[in-house]
Amino acid sequence: QVRLVESGGGLVQPGGSLRLSCAATESIFSFKVMAWYRQAPGKQRELVASMSAGGSTDYADVVKGRFTISRDRKNTVYLQMNSLRPEDTAVYYCYTHRGVEYWGQGTQVTVSS
Fold it and tell me: I need a labelling partner for 76 at 20 to 30 A (CA). Which of 36, 68, 87, 98 fits?
């Protein structure tokens, strides 16, 4: 059973930055893709950023140029979030799949003055 554990969320002012971490219980290179999703109150969960095992990345249009997904050489994926806006407020989830889907428990990001 794969576990994904997010950390790094919190309260930040508009224009600020946060870095989220997602630690997996096994090597992230055993998965074809690692991704970050988010869900704001009253909205559907949406894809924010993804990274393939080969290192290719993809971003939602609303975060391009502001967010960066990266990884270490073992079991952690990161989401660097800069120039944060109030509309980025959401619970952020780490995601992967290998026959079945695996989700983390989520970490709250609140952007407010």
Answer: 87
**Residue length, the chain?**
113
Residue of 81, 76, 75, 72 lying closest to 9 (CA atoms): 81
Q: What is the mean pLDDT of residues 11-33?
A: 97
Nearest to 88 by CA among 7, 4, 15, 6: 15
pLDDT-based confidence at residue 1 (cuts at 50, 70, 90): confident
Q: What is the Cα gyration radius of the chain?
A: 13
Distance, C-alpha 79 to centroid of its chain: 5
> Running DSSP on this structure, what letter comes out for residue 17?
-
Which DSSP string do the residues of 48-81 spell out, in sequence order? EEEEETT--EEE-GGGTTTEEEEE-SSSEEEEEE
Phi, psi of 51 (to 5 degrees): -140, 130
Which of 92, 106, 100, 96 is CA-nearest to residue 25? 96
The percentage of the chain sitting over the pLDDT mark of 70, rounded to a whole number, equals 100
Residue 11's identity, in one-letter code, is L
